[in-house]
Amino acid sequence: NERMRWGSLLEPLVAQEFAERTGWKIRRRNAILRHPENEWMIGDVDRLVATPDGTGILECKTTSEWLRDDWENGHVPDPWAIQVHHYLSITGLPFGYIAVLIGGNALRVKRIDRDERIMGDLAEIEGEFWRRVQAGDPPSADASGDAADVVNRLYPEADPEKAIALPDEATAW
To answer: How far apart are the C-alpha atoms of 108 and 162, rounded to whole Å?
Structure first.
């Protein structure tokens, strides 16, 4: 979608500004990386960063001005913190940074240190997800927009204005 397109277009600029502000070297890692034991854990980091503490990952993000508060007081929104931990698990690296451009005019940089408990939880959750993919066992539908999109793609002929009366035994189904 358009939001994702702009994020991709701005990624190199966010990375360059991160490097200029920190003075650290960054480089692209043009490869799909795979966890050494859990082959279903893969990822493509935005950049690697060389700091005085060693090598880490750098994820470059853009977000709306409306979400500025989500980044205040050292906070990193959960989806992005989880993404960094996923990549730390895959790479074995000890830390990562997120550089986020907020509203097109404010850069925030946050460090995330490796947390073995989070990475263990992720491996378990991702492993269960992959098991279900292989078994052809989709998750139950919920009220999320993503679930609605899937239902709409699966049943494009559905008429949302049409109601069907179900028999009483449908409750047991």
So the answer is: 49
Give per-residue pLDDT as tens, 57-72. 999 999 988 988 888 8
Closest CA to 44 of 3, 2, 8, 91: 91
Q: Which residues contact 33 (CB under 8 A, 6 or more apart)?
A: 42, 43, 44, 45, 87, 90, 91
pLDDT in tens, 4-58: 898 888 899 999 999 999 999 999 988 899 999 999 999 999 999 999 999 999 9
Strands (E) across 24-142 are located at: 25-27, 33-34, 42-43, 47-51, 54-63, 95-102, 106-113
On whether the CB atoms of residues 87 and 59 are closer than 8 A, the answer is yes
Mean pLDDT of the chain: 90
Contact assessment for residue 102 and residue 70, using Cβ atoms and an 8 Å cutoff: no
* φ, ψ dihedrals at 110, nearest 5°: -130, 135
The answer to whether 33 touches 42, Cβ cutoff 8 Å, is yes
Q: Using CA atoms, how far apart are residues 67 and 80, in angstroms rounded to an integer?
A: 13
- Helix (H) or strand (E) holding 139, with range, is none
Beta carbons of 64 and 77 less than 8 angstroms apart: no
